[in-house]
Amino acid sequence: xxxxxxxxxxxxxxxxxxxxxxxxxxxxPRSTNIAIYPTILISRCPNNQCFYNDYLSDYGDSGGVWYIxxxxxxxxxxxxxxxxxxxxxxIGIHNGRPHYDQEHIEAVASWAVKVRExxxxxxxxxxxxxYSSSCM
Length: 136
What we know:
The protein has one domain (about 5-135): Thrombin, subunit H, CATH 2.40.10.10. It is mainly beta. The longest helix has 7 residues, at about 110-120. The protein has a six-stranded antiparallel β-barrel with strand order 1-2-3-6-5-4. The two termini are about 25 Å apart. It is built from one helix and seven strands. It is elongated. Strand 2 and strand 3 form a beta hairpin.
């Protein structure tokens, strides 16, 4: 999964995306001595190559989902018009950003499977052709 492009839906920054740098990141939130492990470390500027120039996450985004998008089907209209329908697999729940990240270029997410182990009433989300507005 290292190098995979993932997307986040957050209430403050909206839809953002980045690349997975680590899947075994040990994150300690600011002003705490509690470590959350394992988490996923995601960057909008992997190898100093930025995808865009806005924040990856900010206050208020916590609890948003990180997900992988995949193409379900493609419709081709002439001339050169393509319509893509995407599905999504949730991989993590947004927690915050590393304390050293002052430019909001990296974010941390708890593995969705770990969250589901703690709260069994949470189910994984897959968005398809009959997606709800929460998948958009």
